[in-house]
UniProtKB/TrEMBL annotation:
InterPro entries: EMP-2, PMP-22/EMP/MP20-like, PMP22/EMP/MP20/Claudin, PMP22_EMP_MP20
Topology term for the membrane: Multi-pass membrane protein
Regions crossing the membrane: 63-83, 95-118, 138-162
Keyword RNA-binding: no
Annotated localization: Apical cell membrane; Cytoplasm, Perinuclear region; Golgi apparatus membrane; Membrane raft
Functional note: Functions as a key regulator of cell membrane composition by regulating proteins surface expression. Also, plays a role in regulation of processes including cell migration, cell proliferation, cell contraction and cell adhesion.
Domain of life: Eukaryota
Identification of the protein by name: Epithelial membrane protein 2
Gene that this sequence comes from: EMP2
Length: 166
């Protein structure tokens, strides 16, 4: 049981790290000579422009930003609650709250990545920010967001299964 708990803690910390990297790092949409994320657009690794309300579809990118931040916060809260519940609750009552919060984190990261997937053409057609970057591809931060979705989903389900273990 101790090995299983250690594995779950490592898995949860990995999920949180993936969420932090996906939220912060600058590689959601990349191409030759540019890279962009949910916060800014950079050309030639030095000319960076912050994404702000002058973008035509700013509310869409704000929804992605808010969902990614919320998923990261919820994942960290779930880890904190897991550690508290591990020592506070009696057996059979553990980890339900942790599972619910982790599954909410999973839902938030899925919403963010889905919005970005569905709306990336709309987001990148604004000529003020994206003059030459329509010919790009999804970057590793975008892929990490989807991997974090899978990890948070698996860990949320593991907490529910672990609740019944003795």
């Amino acid at each position: 049981m101790l090995v299983l708990l250690a594995f779950i803690i490592v898995f949860h910390i990995t999920s949180a790290a993936l969420l932090f990297i996906a939220t912060i790092d600058n590689a959601w949409w990349v191409g030759e000579g540019f890279f962009t994320d949910i916060w800014r657009v950079c050309r030639n690794n030095s000319n960076c422009t912050e994404i702000n309300d002058s973008l035509d579809d700013y509310t869409t990118i704000q929804a992605v930003q808010a969902s990614m931040i919320l998923s990261t916060i919820l994942c960290c809260i779930a880890l904190f609650i897991f550690v508290l519940q591990l020592f506070r609750l009696k057996q059979g009552e553990r980890f339900v709250l942790t599972s619910i919060i982790q599954l909410l984190s999973c839902l938030c990261v899925m919403i963010a990545a889905s919005i970005y997937t569905n709306q990336y053409e709309e987001i990148h057609k604004d000529k003020k920010f994206y003059e030459d970057i329509t010919q790009g591809k999804y970057g590793y931060s975008f892929i990490l967001a989807w991997i974090a979705f899978a990890f948070t989903l698996i860990s949320g389900i593991m907490y529910l299964i672990l609740r019944k273990r003795k």
